[in-house]
């Protein structure tokens, strides 16, 4: 049963501790990465046979297999995917940045050029749940950024095919190529390239502890979005909130995995007790009861604060992935939120609205990293180069200043590289 705690009586270790799903997988993952780097497709096929229990002839999903998978998906769900994709595009299109150029000084031109990352790898988990929503959330911003090629990887089922709902989402989002491989070995394939799978420049998408560890180990060889931990929800709710709704919202994250975290912070002891009781009732109705119960019992908590402002202080300290403000006039409190991945405003906006449909991204910082990380966005799929132009006259005007700067750093070669140009020009006069 979930714990009810009184703020002020809770040790910080109890309040802010996150379950660590990243078990010590580093040695195992390092071996997998090295094997794939050395043996390519052969290693991928061996791992697929061992972990997914399926023998594959080809790793890539061809057009025939793509169309066969989509034919298994209800047309009504295709329409839902398309409506969700439209919302996601509308939101992320507003994130596009422009290059700029400054030439306010005579003979000086400086600027910044924004360019898309060329090839992106999307990892889509299909372990305990087929996350077709992740396909939309990770692919659409990359498409808006202008990435030339988007490669998707996902584990095959026992029949040797990727879940058809994931394939349908890939079609709607505009994925270019799809490969049947999952786990740390899929991250290795994207990072190093194999005979079938091209090397990418950036890898995005959530996954198991082994996937997270693999992303951590290949970072630097390729870019990654973030090291994602277990899913989290924190609801700040007043006494007017329906306990059935809050319990349902908390369980929506608890059912993700055993290490997920669901927290309620409220100024009402009555609501705290009602939510605790309601969680017990609703747990029995969940198909994933075993997972959700472990999450609630081990990581869930209800914290009773003196007032809503203190509740928001607690939320800022925890810096949750998902934050619900189930209060009157939630926009009155928005400016007080300093650390949260995504904020859901009011009593009629459960976190699941953001998971699937609203438009803002659902790939979010976890484990308190919302203090310094942001949701996935178009910015994650571009890179910037800066450029500088000086005419001879413009360089002569600042040559002595630059040289002095270099001399103070005892880098006389830097100073000489500037002064030598002015000296040579004077010789020609």
Task: Quickly give the structural class.
Answer: alpha/beta
Report the biggest beta sheet as strand number plus sense, adding barrel if it closes. 6 strands, parallel
Query: How far apart, in Å, are the first and last alpha carbons?
Result: 88 Å
Could you estimate the helical fraction of the residues in percent?
Answer: 40-55%
Rounded average pLDDT: 94
Q: Estimate the strand proportion.
A: 15-25%
Q: What does the radius of gyration come to? A: 26 Å
Q: What best-fitting shape do the alpha-carbon axes yield?
A: globular
Please count the helical segments.
Answer: 16
Which segments are poorly predicted (pLDDT under 50) over 5 or more consecutive residues? Answer: none
- In the sheet with the most strands, the strands line up as 1-11-10-9-12-13
| Helix-strand string | EHHHHHEEEHEHEHEHEEHEHHEHEEHEHH
Structural account:
By secondary structure, the chain is α/β, with parallel strands linked by helices. The chain contains 16 helices and 14 strands. It has helices spanning 12-16, 26-39, 41-51, 63-71, 75-93, 132-145, 164-173, 183-192, 209-218, 243-254, 269-283, 289-299, 308-318, 351-356, 392-408, 412-428, and strands at residues 3-6, 100-102, 108-116, 119-123, 149-154, 177-180, 202-204, 223-224, 232-237, 261-266, 301-304, 322-326, 342-345, 382-390. The strands form three sheets. The protein has a six-stranded parallel β-sheet, sandwiched between helices. Strands 6-5-4-7-8 form a five-stranded parallel β-sheet, with helices on both faces. A hairpin with a 5-residue loop joins strand 2 and strand 3. The longest helix is centred in the first third of the chain and has 19 residues, at 75-93. It starts with a strand and ends with a helix.
């Amino acid at each position: 049963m979930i714990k009810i705690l009184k703020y002020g009586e809770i040790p910080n270790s109890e309040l802010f501790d996150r379950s660590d799903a990243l078990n010590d997988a580093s040695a195992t993952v390092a071996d997998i990465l090295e094997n794939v780097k050395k043996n390519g497709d052969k290693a991928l096929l061996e791992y697929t046979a061992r972990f997914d229990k399926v023998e594959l002839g080809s790793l890539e999903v061809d057009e025939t297999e793509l169309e066969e998978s989509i034919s298994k998906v209800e047309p009504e769900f295709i329409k839902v995917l398309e409506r969700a994709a439209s919302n996601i595009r509308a939101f992320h299109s507003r994130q596009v940045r422009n290059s700029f150029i400054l030439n306010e000084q005579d003979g000086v031109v400086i600027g910044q050029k924004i360019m898309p990352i060329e090839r992106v790898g999307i990892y889509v988990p299909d372990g305990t749940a087929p996350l077709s929503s992740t396909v939309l959330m990770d692919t659409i911003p990359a498409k808006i950024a202008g990435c030339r090629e988007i490669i998707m990887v996902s584990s095959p089922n026992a029949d040797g095919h990727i879940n058809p709902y994931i394939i349908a989402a890939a079609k709607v989002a505009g994925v270019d190529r799809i490969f049947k491989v999952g786990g740390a070995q899929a991250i290795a394939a994207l990072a190093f390239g194999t005979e079938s799978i091209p090397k990418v420049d950036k890898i995005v998408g959530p996954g198991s502890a082994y996937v997270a560890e693999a992303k951590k180990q290949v970072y630097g060889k390729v870019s990654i979005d973030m090291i994602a931990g277990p899913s989290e929800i924190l609801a700040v709710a007043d006494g007017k909130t329906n306990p059935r709704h809050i319990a349902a919202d908390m369980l929506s994250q608890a059912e993700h995995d055993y290490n997920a975290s669901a927290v309620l912070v409220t100024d009402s002891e009555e609501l705290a007790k009602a939510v605790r009781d309601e969680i017990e009732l609703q747990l029995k109705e969940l198909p994933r009861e075993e997972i959700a119960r472990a999450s609630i019992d081990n990581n869930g908590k209800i914290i009773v604060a003196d007032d809503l402002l203190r509740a928001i202080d607690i939320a800022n300290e925890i810096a949750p992935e998902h934050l619900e403000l189930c209060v009157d006039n939630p926009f009155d409190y928005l400016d007080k939120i300093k650390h949260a991945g995504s904020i859901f405003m009011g009593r009629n906006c459960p976190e699941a609205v953001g998971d699937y449909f609203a438009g803002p991204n659902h790939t979010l910082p976890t484990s308190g990293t919302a203090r310094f990380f942001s949701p996935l966005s178009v910015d994650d799929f571009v890179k910037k180069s800066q450029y500088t132009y000086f005419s001879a006259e413009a360089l002569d005007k600042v040559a002595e200043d630059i040289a002095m700067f270099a001399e103070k750093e005892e880098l006389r070669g830097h100073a000489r590289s500037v002064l030598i140009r002015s000296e040579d020009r004077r010789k020609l006069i």
